[in-house]
Write a structure and sequence with these properties.
Two copies of one chain form a homodimer. Chain A is of the alpha+beta class and about 190 residues long. In chain A, about 50% of the residues lie in helices and about 10% in strands. A four-stranded mixed beta sheet of chain A has the order 2-1-3-4, with helices on both faces. In chain A, helix 5 packs antiparallel against helix 6 and helix 5 crosses helix 8. The radius of gyration of chain A is 16 Å and the shape is globular. The two termini of chain A are about 20 Å apart. The interface between A and B is medium-sized, with 32 and 32 residues.
């Protein structure tokens, strides 16, 4: 069995969401599994001096248009979330508080859908709890152990060089952006 | 005849160079011509708070790898230029000093090839002159009229919302990045 693909993303990243709808099928076509690894873009921005896209003059307006157009181009449901972006600390902690891989994956998919399709503000811890509850999950967002685990995961991502979302690592090779999926597909067949 | 495509780029932008090798064929497949419009990323960065990619922690290292990998992926010759990036004010002025469209296009292609394939520093006005001379062109980089014309072109680009390179506008629809060429291709068939 080949090594799994690392899939880093922020729960309030539109391109991260778009990638989340395709990454498992992409990996499966090449006999791979995917490690979903939510991170916090805000922490990465401290390292790179970056800022949330909507806050940047010119680029912000363009991005809102590109989120929608890219979703249409790929046939992925997308309703512009409002507020946007939101803090995803609670969502991230809820994810890492779960030990079971399937439970984590189900929660992650449900959070993305809630925010980018159903208009639910996943920046609110109460909404994260409700979404998890609907899946029969009871994540912990408050214990120090979970806070520490989340922080360690996010710090490890930055240490790996993760500065954006989505950020995919295949056998040590990093790919930034949903628009690198074709390069990832070829790389999975054979590094070039 | 349908309206031409506007192709904005900075002469020291790797993704702008990659796009320059494909934009005319892309447009021609859909019965379009291309207006090549060099601009100065440094001026755009003042509007967006942006910075040259190589200067950004994490993102800079990633980008150097992605320039090379994207060139290999698309089968485009690319030798990492050094120094990088360079000021492209002289290159831009030389381009806009020419009135003939074919002469402009020939000079632009030659400048890109010199910098990204042949290792010539096009930040040096003397090298711009030599490259132009090899094509039988004598561009003006010094007159106030050319300086003013260049400044007006760059300001007009920023006013159109151009914040990166390449930046392509098709019938009012903006596309940022060589990685949007597939979306452009579909848009040229039919807006979606």
């Amino acid at each position: 069995m080949k090594a799994p693909i690392d899939f880093y993303f922020d729960f309030s990243s539109p391109y991260g969401y778009l990638a989340s709808t395709r990454i498992d099928a992409l990996a499966a076509r090449h006999g791979r599994k995917v490690n979903w690894r939510p991170m916090l873009l805000g922490v990465a921005f401290k390292a790179t001096g970056g800022a949330p896209l909507p806050s940047i003059p010119l680029k912000g307006e363009y991005s809102r248009r590109d989120f929608l157009r890219s979703a249409r181009f790929h046939g992925i449901p997308y309703n512009p979330p409002d507020p946007f972006p939101v803090s995803t600390v609670a969502a991230c902690r809820a994810f890492y508080s779960l030990d079971d891989t399937d439970a984590r994956l189900n929660l992650a998919r449900a959070l993305f859908k809630a925010y980018f399709v159903d208009g639910v503000n996943i920046g609110e811890p109460g909404n994260v709890s409700k979404i998890a509850g609907g899946l029969g999950l009871q994540p912990d967002m408050e214990s120090q152990a979970v806070k520490d685990r989340t922080r360690a995961e996010v710090d490890a991502a930055i240490a790996k060089g993760v500065f954006g979302s989505p950020y995919i690592i295949v056998d040590g090779e990093p790919f930034w952006g949903f628009d690198r999926f074709e390069q990832i597909e070829r790389w999975l067949r054979e590094p070039f």
